[in-house]
Amino acid sequence: MSKNKLKTEKPENKKPKGAAPNPDVLKKDKEPEVKVKELVKDERTHKVMGVFFLLLSVYCFIAFTSYLFTWEDDQDKVFRYSTQELLIGDVKVDNLLGRLGAYVSHNFFFNGVGVAAYLFCYFFFIIGVNFIVGRRVFRVWRNVKYILFGLLFVSMTLAFLAGGFDFPWGGALGNALNKWTSGFVGKTGTALLLLVAGFSWLIWKFNFDFKWPEKKVKPPKPAPVAPPVTPLAAAAAAVTPAAATPPPVKEADRKNGLREDSGVMVIPPAAEEDLDEFSPMELVEREEITVIPSHVPHVPPVVPPAPILNEPEEEEEEGEELMLELKELPEMEEGEDEDPGPLLYIEETPAEEVAPTPKKKNAPQEVAFEIKPTFQDEEEEVEEVAAVRPVVPADPYDPSLDLRDYQYPTLDLLENHNADKVIVQDTSELEKNKNQIIDTLKNYDISIQKISATVGPTVTLYEIVPAAGVRISRIKNLEDDIALSLSALGIRIIAPIPGKGTIGIEVPNVKKTIVSLKNMLASEKFQSSTMDLPIAIGKKIDNENFIADLAKMPHLLMAGATGQGKSVGINTLLVSLLYKKHPSQLKFVLVDPKKVELSLYKLIEKHFLAKLPGEDDAIITDTKKVIHTLNALCIEMDLRYDLLKEAGTRNIREYNNKFTQRRLNPLKGHRYLPFIVLVVDEFADLIMTAGKEVEMPIARLAQLARAVGIHLIIATQRPSVNIITGTIKANFPARVAFKVSSKIDSRTILDIGGAEQLIGQGDMLVSFNGELVRLQCAFVDTPEVENVAEFIGNQKGYPDAFLLPEYVDDKDSDGKELTLADRDPLFEEAAQVIVQTQQGSTSLLQRRMKLGYNRAGRLMDQLEAASIVGPNMGSKARDVLVKTDAELQEILNNLL
Ligand SMILES: Nc1ncnc2c1ncn2[C@@H]1O[C@H](COP(=O)(O)OP(=O)(O)OP(=O)(O)O)[C@@H](O)[C@H]1O
């Protein structure tokens, strides 16, 4: 019914208003052009061509083979009769394919290329297959090159070898080539030429490995242990990460794509021939095949140690050699060459003082050295050291050494969830959906040229190429009507698919596949990722793993109605990070107003969690404490910026590099900075209870914290505009939407509709880098998270969680008189810092004691009240009025 109605409306559709020209006239003008084009492009034409070439190939094959047996008799007849007589007349031949067969074979063999004529059968075959299948199963141009070479080489070789026979082995071409070459370079030359050509082709094709058997080299003896090894040097040697060196990959395994160290099957890149082109109704089932090992050993990232002494390999002057070492010293600021760990300093004693040794070239060991451990917090020693020539410290600083035995969680802690490796979609379902789509579009008078299907874990994407002349905007306008007509739940129309000019219709699969996090973490992409904070989010429709770097995102906003997969999504992100990061490199700040969602992570408090000083629980559930924690994070951010500025670095990566190279002085407050990831499970709840007090620090962190390694993951059930305000949104370029309840919610979170049409259970849209991608979120169940948390929690951790700077709420202390009775608990410590360093600087207190500006300022006022420092002098540091510890102790005793 609607069909007829719509068809009668057609002219109106084309030209809605105004004095339109007669549509029939216009149509007639355009029709022929469109038809020829369509005919050429039409897949049926291609199929017909395919059948033709395949039959041609078979025909030639039969004719040629028959010719091998009947050539003697048939050749006579071909010679005797003219072409016309032969083809039209009544001549009897023996070839299985009659006169035409005899004629064609004779011309291909005798007048052509001899036995090499079979290469033509092959050529027709590949053309036929390509046409019939509708894609380049065989690469035509490459094959043409091989065939041309084959024609020349085979015909000439056969003519050369079998020149005396009657049978046209090499055909006219082979004979001619052979004749000319033999005349030019002689018989022997021709033979050599053919051998060279033959071998060249074989080498080119198979790339043989010509290996000369290698001389057996004795393994070098282990270097003798240096006689005066201090305990310190021994400790440094123990750091050498022998275990960290990945085991060598066996040659055979490498060829097979099996990486021994990870147990991960790496799929070799698809052969060129396999590359597909867009084809009618093709089924795309691409799956990253991974062999999931029961145990994937992880190797903590340990930087290989630098040699203690660089012994030059080439001949060099002795003096120059020492110069070389000195040149290698890192550029340090004055007095910055100390760091807290024990260092190796090499004291050079003039050779003649130790023993008179004759000067020799290339004998560095003969310069007398004494290796002395020094500890920098002992001041006299530091001074002593300043007098000697320090050498580059032996090893780069390795932050993971505090927990050097830490084992990364293994994959056997996770479940497979029966996630099928290959997604098998019922072909009848595909066919049914395809026909329904075609029929529905026909109802709206939209004809299509091609349709292809890509089966994903939860939905199948039908990609449509509209027929020539159909405007995509028309389909876009009809989006809702088409969705209604298809009447399947969760249909999403993408018109057009960005960058493709095709239209996508996503239809939910009847049988959905769970994407297990285990599979994703076992994938080569994740295992070999070098991202700072790799997160395995889920699988795209084409089954490609979507793994992103949270550090680049740099923050993530997640929304979704209740029960659609948000908590699973957060667990997925957290577990991915736990599988890739050492506790020294990453800390989580977990905010869980719902109190139960993140409680599992309590077990890893001493490894991966950060908390406020003095707090019992690292997982924050109370709104007041959330405000304190967020402000503490802001202080940490400011402190980190100060450190970055002092170090002359722009971001956490550069800073940590400089620190691990021991180019930053920990006595000046420098430290290794772990990444901090703040996770808020229910943001709406926080905004409802604390409003601006929460929004402001979140917005500040979102705006500034990326460079100093603080990243935010904020989740909310209610993505309404009063919760996700403009300020928040502007600073969260990466957003994730699970199914939401309305189009408005979808717009709030993604700036576009679509999330309301998702089908739940981890079906999600990710807006990142200006692209909108539909993913099936990787699934990790609560018991799995528990396993991972237990595995980590049972290992030795730090004494406490990572402590954030203390934050004192101005409201708590404002209005109070600054009396000595109200002294800050850190008063004594602050006084000691000031007296020991003799610097009355507030920022020094901030850095040394990890305090916020307000608290450090208050402490300074209290120190002033106690006459330990002088009054504020603007930008200059205050005078320190107490010069010695004894003096300070007396003042402190009097204050009690
Ligand atoms: N990626 C996924 N794959 C398969 N099933 C999933 C996935 N994510 C979630 N589910 C299913 O959906 C259920 C609800 O998920 P989840 O608890 O994460 O929802 P939620 O959005 O956090 O809900 P709430 O806001 O009420 O906590 C899960 O128990 C699971 O059965």
Automatic annotation (TrEMBL):
Disordered: annotated segments: 1-29
Entry's transmembrane regions: 48-69, 108-134, 146-165, 185-204, 225-244
Comp. bias regions, Basic and acidic residues: 1-15
Keyword vocabulary terms for this entry: ATP-binding, Cell cycle, Cell division, Cell membrane, Chromosome partition, DNA-binding, Membrane, Nucleotide-binding, Transmembrane, Transmembrane helix
SMART domains: Ftsk_gamma
FtsK domain mapped to chain residues: 543-747
Keyword Membrane: yes
Membrane protein topology class: Multi-pass membrane protein
Similarity field: Belongs to the FtsK/SpoIIIE/SftA family.
Protein name: DNA translocase FtsK
Organism listed in the record: Chitinophaga nivalis
